[in-house]
């Protein structure tokens, strides 16, 4: 999947502005090169530049124009894999370390926003709603489990309470996580970019890396415009836009597309009266929140091809009306798509690929919190502290069936099965 820059019909792009960064040209030398100017790469750049390390960030399009500037903007708690499963896989001690890491990631996000004065419309609170009554048992167990970790910010809601919070009666109950929330993701990315440049990191746009190789004096990168970079250490942080750089990444990380709309400003105080974010229990999840100017920003539906639907607004509107049938006459102002990355297990793929080469990708929809922090962890790993990256590398991320060549049909078959299950 090729990133062509900010989508023309994005409400995010329409409500944020940022300086342009130059394209890299000629032969460039740096200590650390980072491929990808989204949350992961910018988080790493801030960490490294703060230590006075010479760092260069290359983005194939515009800084923050990939998933980091297109996503639902939701702040979730925990790792992408449930803590109960992590404890079953790794035992109580390492599962607790992974939970603490996810809480550290959330704290780190809030610290970055505060320290660097990033105005990104931050709000607290997230409702998770059950589209089937059977999910009550799972969430009840989750609430009890995380209480053992001292996390008391999530509470169960009955059907009436969820209806009051969301302004719809189509769900059977849910949870409210006061430690979750939402923000403007593109403003966050642009604020992280400003913080990195203030620390003297060098950022380049429209600088697409097509290959890299080890050489005697370090690592040599070749760009599609003929420019080159020589570095000592390399971080690959392009998430859904990294195909062709590494066979190992390609076999474990798959780009998929997800879609979002915004309505015109609504005059319906019953919808999200407390300004929480919301998501439901479907495998192909619906997620939504209100914007500061009272639009409904609603994400729903995905595809697994290199192409977006011809009419994104209509594609997402069908899902929105299943949640809010009362919005049948609401006008849709914006509709856009974005490419994220998933893994087979939904756990992130974090690896030391080779000496002085690290990668992090596959946040499976939870990158707002995890990606900037995992960038910091990569930065720490290449400067001598690889404890957290080593722990993350133990997360189960099996290769897709059939490797890179056959993963598409296998993935489509598997995900289509789960999408059908949502409807049953």
Textual characterization of the structure:
The protein is an alpha/beta fold and 424 residues long. It folds into 2 domains: 11-70 and 187-253 and 345-419, FAD/NAD(P)-binding domain; 122-182 and 255-341, D-Amino Acid Oxidase, Chain A, domain 2 (2-Layer Sandwich), CATH 3.30.9.10. The protein is built from 12 helices and 17 strands. Strands 3, 4, 5, 6, 11, 12, 13, 14 and 15 form a 9-stranded mixed sheet that branches. Helix 2 (39-50) packs across helix 10 (367-382) and helix 4 (92-115) crosses helix 10. Pfam families: DAO. It comes from Asticcacaulis benevestitus DSM 16100 = ATCC BAA-896. GO terms for molecular function: oxidoreductase activity.
- SSE order, one letter for each helix or strand: HEHEEHHEHEHEHEEEEHEEEEHEEEHHH
Low-confidence regions: none
Fraction of residues in H or I helices: 25-40%
Helical segment count: 12
CATH topology type of the largest domain: FAD/NAD(P)-binding domain
Number of domains: 2
Shape: globular
β-strand percent reads 25-35%
CATH superfamily of the largest domain: FAD/NAD(P)-binding domain
Quick check: average pLDDT? 93
Topology, number of strands: 17
Structural class: alpha/beta
Radius of gyration: 21 Å
Characterize the largest beta sheet: strand count, sense, and whether it forms a barrel.
9 strands, mixed
Please report the distance between the alpha carbons of the first and last residues.
Answer: 32 Å
CATH class of the largest domain reads Alpha Beta
The CATH architecture of the largest domain can be given as 3-Layer(bba) Sandwich
Q: Quaternary status of these chains?
A: single chain
GO molecular function: oxidoreductase activity
Domain FAD dependent oxidoreductase: 31-380
Protein name: FAD dependent oxidoreductase domain-containing protein
Keywords: Oxidoreductase
